[in-house]
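Entry type: protein chain
Record version: 2
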Amino acid sequence: MVRQKTPTLIAVAHGTQDPNGLAEIRRLINIVRTKRPELAIEMCWLDGAAPTLAAQLPTVDGPAVVVPILLSTGYHVKADIPAIVGDRPATAISPPLGPDPRISRVVYLRLTQARTEGQGDDGVVLIAAGSSDPDARAELIEVARQVERWNHFPVSIGQLTDADPFAHAGRVSQVANYLLAPGYFNDMLHLLASAEVIADPIGAHPLVADVIIDRYETTARTLR
């Protein structure tokens, strides 16, 4: 029996004009490479940086698993990426990275790192980039419930695509950041938020790398 080639992991992130954002995502994928050195891993983008998924995919030989380096469902996951992958043989697309308790844990850790001594756990809003897809809002609510497990106080939600991301948040003293890396949306968050504490984006963390590997492995099994 001929053994099938191990699928290439194609990590596709949103893309940004912010060099710090690009560097942070590359650091994240390098953690994945360190954890799984035997895998062929390609890094590409949907827009705003090169190579794009559309340019990278034809250069990959053999089976592949496309892993969206995105936190929630939405247009990119449901339409954009599938349209680019098309009917390429032996190619599967994994679910996005969230919601996942490991990523929610990193969100909480970033929030605690931003706090100073004496600042409590109340008045927390979880802010994401946002989507018009109702599934994305439902997923964000799930993440907020996961963050509450460690925060021990209610966590409200907001999306930066909303007219007012903080409209339903009540009194907000702390912002939990549900963005992967610096870039346009993180800049917008800092512009709009008046909270005393604004956490850093999730960034390159080993727990996030573990989620990427899990998404790859679970999806790769469907190709075998």
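Comment: The two ends are 13 Å apart (CA to CA).
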